[in-house]
Amino acid sequence: MPRVSIIVPCYNEQTTIRLLLEALRQQTFPRAEMEVVIADGMSSDGTRAEIAAFQKDFPNLDVRVVDNPLRSIPSGVNRAIEVSRGGIIVRLDAHSKPYPDYVANCVSAIESGRGDNIGGVWEIRPGADTWIAKSIAVAAAHPLGVGDALYRHARHAAEVDTVPFGSFKRGLIDRVGYFDESLLTNEDYEFNARIRKAGGRIWLDPSIRSIYFARPTLLELARQYWRYGFWKWRMLRRYPDTLRWRQALPPLFVLSLIGLAFLSLFFPLAGFALIGELALYFSVMILAGLSATLSRRKPYLVFGLPLAIPVMHLTWGSGFLWSILKSSPKKNG
After folding, report:
1. What are 190-222's pLDDT values in tens digits?
2. From the centroid of its chain, how far is CA 145?
3. Cα-flanking dihedrals φ and ψ of residue 254, to 5°?
4. Residue range(s) defining the domain that contains residue 293
């Protein structure tokens, strides 16, 4: 039986790190063949105290902490991999809670040769017990919010472009290299792009399931999706052929709003077009909120979805466009 190294980058995750460690302790895979390596970005809250308390309570699960002074996700993943000892790497997130058979199913899929990097499906849960946090969790799994991202709603195994977290044999690092530390987000997509360009396969298996806790407030959601959009452009500059239609729509939408707003200063018809576009957009959002309210019997979704999904679209698209501007060649002068 192979030894498994579970890699977890984290920073200020006091509220969720214990949930993750408890879930790892409940894994059906033998504890003696698992190690957990947490790369902590020098947390300033009680994250390390929570980890230390868990280590004291449950010494039969091998849990180690390494410093990640750069505080980025890819640097944390790399530092943890460097000190890990397992032949199979399973990457997880401090915001996640894997099902009890998560590690066992990852190992089974890897040993069956289904793919080079194998992952599963997220079940999005609220990050807090508030109506807006619950709405954000629904939005983060809604087709209008994430398009055709299969790892949020797939029911059948398939070859895909990317998977959340991922699990792979250590030898894959020798083939394609470590995670790119110049990308503060989208490092997993870039890693998977290199795997595919090297002839490897990314495999999604819905039996590999984890709970992911969404951001609890609109402000935190906006910050998250701004980062996603900003760093997506940086990744696409290297791999333009990986652009998917769902990723192009938010920046095009934001660009159309900016363009029509500017043109409306000179052409009144552009102002009417802007009003029409916004009216159509928010009509779709309201209909989505009504549909979710009826199907889930949660009245707050009629307000929550038309708030959360536009925040995702507008901040992702704005971050993407800002990244383009920031990376444009500077004029001499």
Report:
1. 999 999 999 999 999 999 999 988 999 999 999
2. 13
3. -60, -40
4. 240-327
